[in-house]
């Protein structure tokens, strides 16, 4: 509205207009859907000429729906050090509260070789960190006869020394099939020991109403197995407070899960019914109750601090970003814990060794060690499947010792 008031041309892109292009606020505006991003130049050209264009079609290949845009499209990265690769679009679920599914549809995975090529090219362009994303990375490959561990083993061969790979969100059901392999991959020195597994609720009856297709014990199996096999791993999760039908007892089960795992990174969402979803038609929990539960969970989250015991540790961290207040550079250690380091230009994009001297709720602060080696990403020697050494074996041993001393990371609460 503001842009239009200023007589600017507007193009609306992404899932929301794709799912509901007839909403009032979109009237007369140009829209580009999730599978048409490669035609953005046409849409902008037309919008500039004052025309309203809507490209919302679903691409098909031999009748099969294709997923997102081509992987080799030209790209300007928001952060030139980080490449974000979507490994698949859509998912295999039908969660009753979800709007994304309406826009993204069923699972459509990119072929392994295309993803490997994208990663290889990114490293050649100076990237030092790759994030793999999707609605559900655990489901990757089920539609094309492959799976997530196969992709990850191919990708780790491409990660140069001094660079890292971060895996995105996975729902519990599909990752359960791959726990053994996933634990080996997450122990790889060039892969962050970090997994985002959204539990949403610890009540089986709420999970059933959400149609999440797992029970709380499935989540526990994933978390317990990985915590056992990947020492120090960070398990981040999401929780929805006040889903329709959630009783006080259901909510208590969720609080108990948080007390049990003390998630360092917890995304708390107060339930909001997305129009057109099955959950919007269910009997809603009163707004006051939803608010109260969200507050209670948030207080619980802020009642613990899993970082203090890390003070004094020596850690290898990869510097990729700048802090919001521009005072520090932001780096991450093996567990994808946020470590603030001094803003020295020679650190950007490098792996450095620091001593942790301060810990807050959401961060650690690290002091660079004098004379420690600085790793600059370089094209790596291919690794064999199952091989754990990417830096030196000595470095790996040191990291493993730190893992045993460490627990979990904290990230800003959403
Ligand atoms: S919330 Fe459920 S339906 Fe929606 S994208 Fe995630 S897994 Fe798919």
Topology readout:
Elements: H1 2-5, E1 11-13, H2 15-19, E2 30-32, H3 40-48, E3 54-55, E4 60-61, E5 64-65, E6 82-86, E7 88-89, H4 100-104, E8 108-109, H5 112-124, E9 129-133, H6 148-156, E10 164-167, H7 172-175, H8 179-186, E11 194-196, H9 204-210, H10 216-229, E12 234-241, H11 248-261, E13 266-270, H12 287-301, E14 314-322, E15 329-332, E16 338-341, E17 351-359, E18 364-368, H13 393-405
Parallel strand pairs: 1-2, 2-3, 6-9, 9-10, 11-12, 12-13, 16-18
Antiparallel strand pairs: 4-5, 7-8, 14-15, 14-17, 15-16, 17-18
Helix pairs in contact: 5-6, 8-10, 11-12
The protein binds iron/sulfur cluster.
Subcellular location: Endoplasmic reticulum membrane
Cofactor: [4Fe-4S] cluster
Domain Radical SAM core: 77-307
Describe this structure in words.
- The structure is a single chain.
- With 414 residues, the protein is of the alpha/beta class.
- The chain has three domains: 2-57, no CATH class; 67-301, Alpha-Beta Horseshoe (pyruvate-formate lyase- activating enzyme); 308-368, Nucleic acid-binding proteins (OB fold (Dihydrolipoamide Acetyltransferase, E2P)), CATH 2.40.50.
- 29% of the residues lie in helices and 19% in strands.
- The chain contains 13 helices and 18 strands.
- The chain has helices spanning 2-5, 15-19, 40-48, 100-104, 112-124, 148-156, 172-175, 179-186, 204-210, 216-229, 248-261, 287-301, 393-405, and strands at residues 11-13, 30-32, 54-55, 60-61, 64-65, 82-86, 88-89, 108-109, 129-133, 164-167, 194-196, 234-241, 266-270, 314-322, 329-332, 338-341, 351-359, 364-368.
- The protein has a five-stranded mixed barrel with strand order 14-15-16-18-17. The protein has a three-stranded parallel sheet with strand order 1-2-3.
- Helix 5 (112-124) packs parallel to helix 6 (148-156) and helix 8 (179-186) crosses helix 10.
- The longest helix is centred in the C-terminal third of the chain and has 15 residues, at 287-301.
- Residues 91, 93-95, 98, 100-101, 135-136, 171 line the site of iron/sulfur cluster.
